[in-house]
Amino acid sequence: MHNISIISDEISDNIDDVISFCKRNSLHNIELRSVSGKNLMYHNAASLKKIAKKLSANKLSVNCIASPILKWSHLGKKTIVKSFRTHGFNEKNVDYASVFELAALFKAKDIRIFSYLKYKGFKIEDLQEEFGKLIALAKKYNMCLLLENEPACNIDTVVMLDEAIRYFNSPRLKVLLDIGNLYEIGLPLKTADIKKLGDAVKCVHVKDYSVHDKKYKTIGEGSINYKKHVADLINFSGKNIIYSLETHTGESKAIDSQNSVFELRNIIASNKVSYGIVGCGRVFQKHVNAIKHTNRAVLRGVYDIDRSKAIRAAKEFDCELFRTLDDLIANVDVINICTPHHTHCNLIIAALQGGKKCLCEKPVVLNDSEAKRVRYLRGYGKNVFVVYQNRFNRAIQAVEKIIHDDILGKTLYVFGDVRWFRPHSYYKQNWRGTIHKEGGLLLNQGIHLLDILMRLGSIKDQQKIKIKNAIKKNIYHKKIQTEDIFIAQFEANKILFNIEVTVSCVPENLESSIFIIFERGSIVVGGEALNELKLVKSTNLNVEPIIENVLDIYGNGHRKLIESLTNYLLDGTENRWLTDFDNAYQSVAFANRLYKYEKLDNFNADNES
Fold first, then answer.
1. In the chain, count of helices (H) and strands (E)?
2. pLDDT exceeds 70 at position 424
3. Rounded CA gap, 367 and 552, in Å?
4. What Å distances lie between residue 140 and 69, 208, 417, 457, 533, CA to CA?
5. Cβ within 8 Å of residue 586, ≥6 positions away
6. Of 403, 421, 394, 378, which is closest to residue 512 (Cα–Cα)?
């Protein structure tokens, strides 16, 4: 069972506002620190009883008293801390027993403690006397002490928390892990840290810190990968942890806290698919963003043969840095293959042999010999998925529906183009622009267009396509092995197709579009990547309103794909736009047929001349 709590003064200093907030958000636990601008330690008995009565009447339980115990200087030691948050507390001398009486009044079982404000030469043994007293009182009152890692105090890291827990070795002393505090001092939480603390963690303070902006934000808007950390906590620390929100934004506290409650519920409420990305290059960011914005997906870690790239990626996206491919495969559910084309085959095989599923960027493989190697492995059909994200564009799906519902009659002619630009610098990476590593323009930029045209033309077997003409040239990029423009005509299912693919549209991408002539109308799909339904013309005037609101944000396809794959893996929810290996290979095989035809056509032309 997952319990969500919230520190009351993160919502408001007014206890009535706190109660109202908790009701609206169906929260049943709170952590008390200060009320009406005063730390609980300064409220008189009558005031405390009134607060307790209100909370009880509204069925709110106090899980923890966020006390200031030992968040002060050690007698005789000079603190090196210049400033820290007091939350309404400014005295050193506290009667420990009174704090336990206070907790008893609110029926709280946990009391937060600290480790003195930082000073030079600190040792865990320095806490022996005070912790001894506190542990004895915790035993007397049948309560538990929660030791928090606090940047202003001596115990501020996972290593120090672990050392203290081991040193005192008491069931009355547990960890209150403040994840945001770790990021504030530049020590991101790792899976190994949670393994180390294990079941010593009883409560987690949840707040999101932006390492770029150096401030706290609403959960999900900062740098902390809470989906990964919560999954690790469930695995290594148990399912009964209390997740206590401490928004800490300081601006619109109630609104930010409400948004954080919503996000935290999404994070802890369900099982998740863990993804590991191999390759931290050009397309990597799209996978990261898609995983981040899919509730039931979590980015577990990354691997790249260029270790510097992997280090930067792991740091920026708060995930594990795997030292080897085998380590990544062993620790994730799905391997995202975002590497150069010629590496795809071996990586797919490694994933399958490791008993895992994989999501591979296009092209899934380069040729028939590689396809045979994958197909040799049992289970490839259900475990290999391919990134054909344009299938998820609303514009494409709208056209598919028009065709399926026979709204405009039979398809007569289809023209498709990819008119993009790649600068000369794009080809500085040694695999790009090479026959054996990249494969060619059709297998790189053109493969999505071929896939969509085959779907719109209901072409299930590429062998049935009749190629009429194929031309490839280098009109701008003269120093690469592969072409920078490819033009072809072909026919299938009594539909004439015409394609043009180029990366030489100086100085920038123009469009990727499809124009279709039907018996009773025409359609144009455009945008940078087939993401806009631009035109629907028909002899039936009632058809044209279909165009309204059929627009996708460019680059949104990866997110829809990851979400669909995640739902399929967790629930078995099938999605006809997900692409398996055999289906994806149809467009690869057809691209290679076009290359073969073009080569043979040129050979015959040369011989005739």
1. 20, 26
2. yes
3. 32
4. 18, 36, 77, 77, 71
5. 451, 454, 459, 460, 461, 462
6. 421
CA–CA gap between residue 530 and residue 609 (Å, rounded): 41
Instruction: Determine contact, residues 395/527, Cβ cutoff 8 Å.
Output: yes
Q: Which helix (H) or strand (E) holds 418?
A: strand 411-419
44 φ, ψ (degrees, to nearest 5): -80, 170
What domains appear along the chain, each with residue ranges and CATH number?
A: 3-269 (3.20.20.150), 274-386 (3.40.50.720), 390-555+580-599 (3.30.360.10)
CB of 468 closer than 8 Å to CB of 511: no
Going by C-alpha positions, the residue among 483, 338, 342, 360 that lies closest to residue 422 is 483
- Give the residue with greater pLDDT, 11 vs 383: 383
Angle at 521 between CA 518 and CA 527, to 5 degrees: 90
- Pairing relationship of beta strands 485-492 and 297-303 according to DSSP bridges: unpaired
Range with the poorest average pLDDT among 56-70, 171-185, 328-342, 527-541: 527-541
- pLDDT band for position 312 (cuts 50, 70, 90): very high
Q: What pLDDT band is residue 92 in, cutting at 50, 70 and 90?
A: low
Q: Which two tokens stand for residue 78?
A: 């000079």
Q: What is the DSSP secondary structure assignment for residue 573, as one 8-state letter?
A: -
Q: What is the rounded CA–CA span in Å between residue 458 and residue 151?
A: 62
Q: At what angle do helices 447-456 and 394-404 cross, to 10 degrees?
A: 30
Question: Quick one: tokens of 273?
Answer: 């698919």
- Extended beta strands in 117-246, E state: 144-148, 173-178, 201-206, 208-210, 215-217, 242-245
Q: Is 429 helix (H, G, I), strand (E, B) or coil?
A: coil
Report residue 516's pLDDT band, with 50, 70 and 90 as the boundaries: very high
Structure tokens at 600: 């043979």
Residue-by-residue DSSP string for 496-509: EEEEEEESB-TTS-
Query: Are 63 and 244 spatial neighbours (Cβ–Cβ below 8 Å)?
Result: yes
**Residue 117 per-residue DSSP state:** B
CA distances (Å), 32 to each of 7, 87, 102, in order? Answer: 6, 11, 11
Contact criterion met (CB below 8 Å) for 27 and 266: no
Helix, strand, or coil (residue 224): coil
Residues above pLDDT 70, as percent of the chain: 94
Q: Residue with structure tokens 């409400």?
A: 258
The pLDDT mean for the chain works out to 93
pLDDT by residue (tens digit) across 568-598?
999 999 999 999 999 999 999 999 999 999 9
- Tell me which H or E stretch contains 532: strand 532-538
**Whole-number Å distance between alpha carbons of 278 and 280:** 7
170 pLDDT higher than 50: yes
Q: Which two tokens stand for residue 236?
A: 């290594």
Round to whole Å and give the CA distance between 357 and 562: 13
CA dist 194 and 233 (Å) reads 6
Query: What is the rounded average pLDDT of the residues 343-365?
Result: 98
Q: How far, in Å, CA of 403 to CA of 408, rounded?
A: 7
Q: How far apart are CA 499 and CA 490, in angstroms?
A: 9
Q: Please, which pLDDT band fits residue 248 given cuts at 50, 70 and 90?
A: confident
Give me the amino acid identity at 59: K
Least Cα distance to 205 among 252, 159, 151, 166 occurs for 151
> How many residues are there in the chain?
609
Q: Are strands 208-210 and 215-217 parallel, antiparallel or unpaired?
A: antiparallel
Tokens coding 352? 């399958």
